[in-house]
């Protein structure tokens, strides 16, 4: 009986650990996407600024 209880406890802990790992992986995935978007917005703004400066320079 004790062996069955221990086996069930280990199985439930393994399931809980997999559940936590899947949540952490999902959060990591979201963080990477957010970071990518932040870099994209930053560099896109820099490119627009550079393009505007270049355009105003060529109009002179």
What labels describe this entry?
60 residues; 0% strand; mainly alpha
- Low-confidence runs of at least 5 consecutive residues: none
The total of helices stands at 1
Radius of gyration: 26 Å
Outline the biggest β-sheet: none
Question: Would you kindly provide a written description of the structure presented here, covering whatever features stand out?
Answer:
The longest helix has 58 residues, at 2-59. The model has no long low-confidence stretch (mean pLDDT 78). With 60 residues, the protein is mainly alpha-helical. It has one helix and no strands. The chain crosses the membrane at residues 20-40. Keywords: Membrane, Transmembrane, Transmembrane helix.
SSE layout and pairings?
Blueprint: H1 2-59
Keywords: Membrane, Transmembrane, Transmembrane helix
Transmembrane segments: 20-40
Task: Provide a concise account of the structure shown.
The chain is built from 1 helix and no strands.
